[in-house]
Amino acid sequence: MQQQQQQQYTQQQQQQYTQQQQQQGFTEQQQQQFTEQQQQQFTQQQQQQFMQQQQQQFPQQQQQQQQQQQQQQQSTSTKLLATARAAACSGKGETAAMASAAPSTPRRRAGSYAAAGTRARLLVLLQLLESAAAAAAAAASAPRAAATAGELLAAATTSGCCARSSTSHCSSATLSTGEKE
What number of other Cβ atoms are within 10 A of residue 100's Cβ? Predict the structure, then answer.
């Protein structure tokens, strides 16, 4: 009887021990799974927050870049217009001064050469204005960004010193519109 009782007791002890071990192993697995789930959730939350921040910041950055580009284009076109206005006014002054000379003198021939040089400079400025107007029309959404070089030169010749000059003085401004002098 005693041996049977001892055997039963030892078997019970072994069973309890194995059950405890199994329970401990199961709880360890649960803890690992729980920690893994927590880590996954944390990383997912971090990724979602990062994506949301990127999505919010991206349109703001694009708007800032577009505004900077538009400001640069406006300042460039303003500088080109001022340069063309100054060149057109100075060119007309040279042409009028040469036209006042006598036709038979060598000074008249020199005046025609100077007028031709002024026209060449104006044509170069026209090409610069056309390229600037094309770039502004492609990048900006404003309707006045597509102004042609003829409009810009017409604005330049009808303002400033040219607006106060006589019509024969500013007759070379019609070169930009394709008319004859």
Answer: 10
What tokens appear for 123 in the block? Answer: 């044509």
What are the pLDDT tens digits along the chain (181 aa)?
Answer: 677 777 788 888 888 888 877 777 767 778 888 888 889 999 999 998 888 888 888 888 888 888 888 888 888 877 877 777 776 666 555 444 444 444 444 555 555 556 666 777 777 777 888 777 777 777 665 444 445 555 666 665 555 444 444 444 444 444 444 444 4
Amino acid at 162: C
**Cβ-contact 122, 152 below 8 angstroms:** no
Contacts for 175 with CB less than 8 Å, ≥ 6 apart: 119, 122, 123, 181
DSSP track, 126-161: HHHHHHHHHHHHHH--SGGGG--HHHHHHHHHTSTT
Q: Please report where in the chains the tokens 């031709």 appear, as a residue.
A: 116
Q: Which of 143, 145, 177 shows the shortest CA–CA distance to 158?
A: 177
CA–CA gap between residue 17 and residue 152 (Å, rounded): 97
